[in-house]
Amino acid sequence: MSDPKPLPLVFNEPRGRKKPPRHLADLTSPERKTLLEEQGLPGFRAKQLSNHYFARLVDDPAEMTDLPAAQRDELVSALLPPLMTPLRTLEADRGTTRKTLWKLFDGALVESVLMRYPDRATVCVSSQAGCGMACPFCATGQGGLQRNMSTAEIVEQVVAAARALHRGEVPGGPGRVSNVVFMGMGEPLANYKAVIGAVRRLTDPAPDGLGMSARGVTVSTVGLVPRINQLAEEGIPVTLALSLHAPDDELRNELVPINTRFSVAETVEAAWNYARTTKRRVSIEYAMMRGINDQAHRADLLGDVLNAYGDWGWVHVNLIPLNPTPGSKWTASDPADEREFVRRLEAKGIPTTVRDTRGREIDGACGQLAAVES
Question: Model confidence over 143-166: pLDDT tens digits?
Answer without folding.
Answer: 889 999 999 999 999 999 999 999
